[in-house]
Specification:
262 residues; alpha+beta; seven-stranded antiparallel beta sheet; three-stranded antiparallel beta sheet
Length: 262
Amino acid sequence: MPRVAEIRQNPVSFLHDNGKWLFYGPQMTEILQDQLPPAQTVENKLPGVGPCDPDDWLRVDEAYAAQMTYRAELLTENREAVLWMDPAALPAAQEVLEEALHLLPGLGFERAGDEVICPDGRIVPLDHHQPLLTLGHLVQEDVCILEKQGDEHVLTGAVLCFPANWRLSEKAGKPLIGIHIPVPEYTDDIARRVQRMFDGVRAGRPLWRFNRLSYVEADLHQPRRKAVGEVERFDRSERQCIIRMPRTDAVIFTIHTWVVRR
């Protein structure tokens, strides 16, 4: 079992107790890991991409149980904001679910027919007609599907429970440069380099990068920053992987989020 993350709920704090998560209120606002992975503590500049082990685009950390509880809450109560897919993207979404299922046993999951037993003991039914919803209940990563349309890769589907200052509804169906507006660092030169990277990533040879920003609030679900101009008490870092699907040729962009106290 992974180590336990510190969790807080407004206004009551709570912790893992003898294998069970104790919940005392309606809205979880803080889920904290102990520390950032060492590779995500160094300086990083855009696009800052390196090779990723083929089996290392999904991870389970000490915040798994708490993050998955929050994801389930969002997928139930706020689904339209965190889940979207163009119907034409179904084959790509089904393929990424299949690829993920190959990796899960090595991360502490157990496949039992049409169900998966998760590291926190939950049982998730496999629904290949709703693959992104299924992934949203299985893994900590947010998963975005980008498919080539003309000269650009376009966002054709995503399960995005933990956005950092962007809304899925505003980016759905848009190309890469539209997704990154209004990020000031995303210049025309960076946009061309990122498009070449998406064109060039090969099946079986994923890439990864990370970002790291300071936040006032620790809440993982921040489509708009909840507070600015105050003391930034938390570091938030995203490990982002870029994976080419071998059958549909779609590019998958995964986001695993850490939040730690500064």
